[in-house]
C-alpha cells in the first residue's frame, strides 16, 4: 500500500514539474509579427548595428570641436658648454652650469574652413545611420514574414491533427460496429480488416501531424525569442482580414529602396569629401608655452594666438582616382536601385497572383467539402441499405476528411499570401 501511494505521489510531482516546464501561450498573429521584429536574436543584432551607426554619427559631430593638446617634457642633460652671444659687460662671461631642461606647451587648433570635409563627413555618418535604419527595418520585415509563415504552418498542422483526431473517433466507432456485424456473420472479416487498416492509417497520419506541429512550434519559439518549451496554444485565425483589394493597386517605397537611396547619399558625401581635398585648410590656433633651463633662463606667460593655413599639394595628382572611385560607386548604386525595383515589381506581381489563386482554390475547396459531405451521406445510406460495400464507405470517409483538411489549409494559405502581399507592397506593419 505504501508503495502504491509513493508511486502516485511521484506521478503527481512529475506531472506538476512537466506542467511548469511546458508553458502554454496564446499568441495572435499581430503579436507574432511584433515579437519577431523586436525579441528575436536577429532583430536584436540588427538593432545593435543601428546603435553603432548612431554612435559613429555622434562621434563624427565631434570633428567640429577644436583640437587641444597639452604636453610637458623634462630632460636631464650633461653639463653643456654655454656660450652666450649676449654681452654681459666687461670681463669674462659667467660660468653657467646646467643639466636640466623643462618645456611645457598647450596648443589649441580650431578648424575654420576645410573645404566641406568636416560638414560632409558628419553628413556621411548621418546618412549611414539612416541607411542602417532602413536596412534593419527591411530585415525585420523579412523576419516577421518568416514568423507569419511558421504561425500559419503551425495552425495548419494543428487543424490537420484535430480533424484527423475527430475522424479517428468516427473510425473507431465504425470498427466497433463492423466487428459486431462480423461476429454476427453480416459482413466478411475482410471488410472489418479494411476498416481497422484505415483506422491505423488515420492514427499514423495523426502522429505525423502532431510531429509537424511540434517541430514548427519549436522553430517559432526560437524565432520569437520564447522559451523552447513554450507550447503555442490552439491558434484561431477568425477575424483576420483575408484580403484588402486596395493593396493590389497601392504600393509604397520599400525599405530596401530607402536604404539604397541613403547609401547613395553616403556615396555622394564621400565624393564631396574627396573633392574637398582640393581646398586649403584654414584654422585658428592658440597656445601657451613655458621653458626653464636650470641656471640659465626661465620663460613664462608665452601665450600666442593666430591663424594657420595648410594645403596638401599632393592632392593635385593623388585625388583624381579617389574621385573616380566615388563616382563609380554612385553609378553602381543607381544600377542596384534599378535592379531591386525590378525585383520588387516581380514580387508584387507574384504576390497578387498567389492571393488570387488562393481565393479561387478556397472557393473550390468549399465546393469540394459540400460535395464530399453529400457523397458520404449518400454512400452511408446505400451502405446501410446493403447497396454499397465497405470499400465505397471507407473511400467516401477519406474523401470527406481530405476535403475538410484542404479547406482548413486553404483558408490559412489565403491569409499567408495576403501577408506576403503586404510585405511586397511595403504595407507590412511590424510595430
From TrEMBL:
One of its GO terms (cellular component) is efflux pump complex. GO terms for molecular function: efflux transmembrane transporter activity; porin activity. InterPro entries: OMP_efflux, TolC-like. The keyword Transmembrane applies. Transmembrane segments: none annotated. The keyword Transport applies. It is found in: Cell outer membrane. Residues 1-21 form the signal peptide. Keywords: Cell outer membrane, Coiled coil, Membrane, Signal, Transmembrane, Transmembrane beta strand, Transport. Residues 154-181 form a coiled coil. Belongs to the outer membrane factor (OMF) (TC 1.B.17) family. This is Outer membrane efflux protein. It comes from Sphingobacterium deserti. The lineage of its organism: Bacteria, Pseudomonadati, Bacteroidota, Sphingobacteriia, Sphingobacteriales.
